[in-house]
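Exercise: predict the fold of this chain.
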Amino acid sequence: EKMLFEKKIENDILPALKNDCIKTYIQPKVDMRTGRIVGGEALVRWQREDGSMVYPDEFIPVIEKNGYVLDVDDYMWDKVCYYIKQLEKEGKTPVPISINVSRMHVYQEDFIDRIKKITSKYDINPKLIPLEITESAFTSEESSLYRKIKSLQDCGYRFSMDDFGSGSSLGMLKDEHVDEVKIDKTFVDDIATDKGRILLKNVIQMIRALGIDMIAEGVETKEQADFLVNNGCIYAQGFYYYRPMP
């Protein structure tokens, strides 16, 4: 059953891109002190033509294995840049909308050119599309990834380490390869315990002392938001504020 399901994903993903069945959702990022939206994260959704949804945790692992995630990333990057440009044309001031970069891109020599090409196509400021890379990608291909990050940072792009704390990435913080870290939801969930509160408090203090921007993921309650703000983390995304929206 699993093999048949994965084969169907493989067969259907490119037609889904062609037929606009892959949708761009955005989950806002907020300043917890004021509730003001300060940015967003672009998230992929797949809606079949019959209206049913294929969820990211079902299809992302499959397309990461067969390489189609590169096509989906390109598609998403283009949609986000187009959206930002439309806001500018309407006279609105867009907030940064971060785009996810699959670890597969680490192995692509043309990764830098692909990002630059899409940004140039819509003539938007690179700071408006922060690039989110999961912590695990930072630990798997360090030297190759760091070269690419440094090159793009020199051109004005910003990098965010997604899921910080889900692996072992402390060494990456001292080398100044990231502009922002996203504190993993597991830390936020753990404030119900004494040890969890101590750990999160000290993680926040460490990131602040290093002078790196931070945002907490998966904030779902007022208690979590209050704890984060009181300890120095002021930006968050999560269901307490907004769910992902078209």
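Check your answer against the key: The longest strand covers residues 36-47.
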